[in-house]
Amino acid sequence: MMRRGLAAVASLLLGSVIAQGAEDAKLRSEAAAALRKATAYFREQVATEGGYLWRYSHDLKIREGEGKADDRTVWLEPPGTPAVGMAFLQAYWDTGDPYYLDAALAAGDCLVRGQLRSGGWADSITFDPAKRPNHAYRVDAPAPGRSQRDTTTLDDNKTQSALRLLMHLDATLGFKNQTIHEAALYALNALLKAQFPNGAWPQQFSKPPDPNAHPVLPASYPDSWSRTFPNVRYAGFYTFNDNTIGDVAEVMGLAVQIYRDERCWQALERVGDFILRAQMPDPQPAWAQQYDLQMHPAWARKFEPPAITAGESQGVIEILFYLYQKTGRRPYLEAADRAIQYLRESQLPDGRLARFYELKTNCPLYFTKDYVLTYCDRDTPTHYAFKTGNRLDALEKRYRQMVSLPASALGPQPYERPKSSTRPAAAQVRRVLDSLDDQGRWVESGRLRYQDDPDVTDRIIDCRTFINNCRTLSSYLATESP
After folding, report:
1. 87-97 pLDDT tens trace
2. d(C-alpha 34, C-alpha 95), whole Å
3. Domains detected in the chain
C-alpha cells in the first residue's frame, strides 16, 4: 500500500514537472515571437536613420525628446538612441539572434553619423539635409565660412551612453567593423584629452583644456559667495551634477576592460584623486554640484547655488565604491564613510535630505517661485527637487559589502558581456505579452510633455517602456527555468 502511495505521489510530481515544462516552453515561444515583432515595429516604423527619440504619439505624427522634435531628428539622452541600441544588443546577447545585433548596429551607425569633430555628441542629431551643415559632424565635409556647432556634452549621460554602446558593439563585433571601431576610439581619445589636470571633466567641451589655466587645488570654502544668481557660464566647471563625472568614470573603466588602454587606467586613477580632493573639509565632508577653477563650490543655474548637495553626494559615494572595486584603494572607502556619517547627521525631520546645504552653517537652502534664495521650503518651484531621497541605509550596506570584499574581487577584471541574471516571473512576462498590440506596439495612456499647442494626445509610445519590456522578454529567454 505504501509503495502504491509513493508511486502515485511520484507520478503526480512528474506530471506537474512535465506540465510546467510545457507551459514554460509555450511562454518562451510567445516571448521570442513578441520580442521579434516589437523590435521589427521599432526598426521599421519608429526609427529615424536607426535612431530614436523619447516619446511618440501612438500614430507617430507627434514626436519629442527633451523638447519637440521632427521626424528627421533623434535624441541622445536615455531613453534615446544609445539606450534603445543597448536594449537590442542585450537581446542579441541573451538570444544569439543576429536580427537584434543588426538593430543595435543600426543605432550605432546612427550615432557615428551624429558624432562631432570635438569627439562626442550634442543633445540630438539631425538628418535634415538643410540643417546638418549647422553642425560639425565628423562624417560630413566642413562648411567653410559657416558657423558650425561643435560642443560635446557630458550632461545627462549623452556622450557617455553613446560611447558605451559603440564600445560594446566594437567588442561584440570583434573589432572588425572599422566604422564603429574608429568612432569609438575617436570619442575615447577626445574624452581623455578633455580631462582636466586635476582629474575632473566639464559638463561640455569643444577642445582640450589649457593646463596652465587649471591649477590642481583641494576644495575649500570661499570667504564669501553671492546670494543672487551671477549668470555665469558654468559648462566648463568641474561637474558632478547629473552624475557627469561618474558616467565618464564608468566609460573609462569599460575602456580598460575592452581595449586594455593604460591611458584609460590612468584617467580612472586621476578621477579618483579628484573626488578625494573635491570632498569638502569639515564640518561638511561631502561634495558640491560643481566647482570653479579655485575649487570653490559654484553657481550653475539660477536655482543651483554654491552649496553642499545631498543628491550628488550620494551619487559620488557610489562612484567611490566603483573606483574601490577597480583599484582596491582604501582612501575611497574612508571618504565614503565620512560622507555617509555627515549626511546622516543632516537628515531633515521627515527623513529626507535637502538638495542643498548652506556652506559652513549646513542650513538647508531653498528657492521661492521667484528664484530668491531662502531657508523656507513653503514656496519652492515644482520643476526641480529641492528635497531628495535618503539612500543612506543602502549606501551603508554597500559600504560594509565593499569592506569585506576579498582581494581577488578588486582590481581590473576581464571584459564580459553583461548578462541577464534575474529571471522575470512568468506573470510579469505574461503582462508584457498581453499589452503588445497586433502591430507590435506597446501603446499606453499618457501625454507628450513639450508641445506648445493644445495637445489632445492621450495614447503614446514611450521608449522607456519599450526598453523595459524588451529586457523583460530577453531576460526570460536568456535564463533557464528553475
Report:
1. 999 999 999 99
2. 13
3. 32-478 (1.50.10.20)
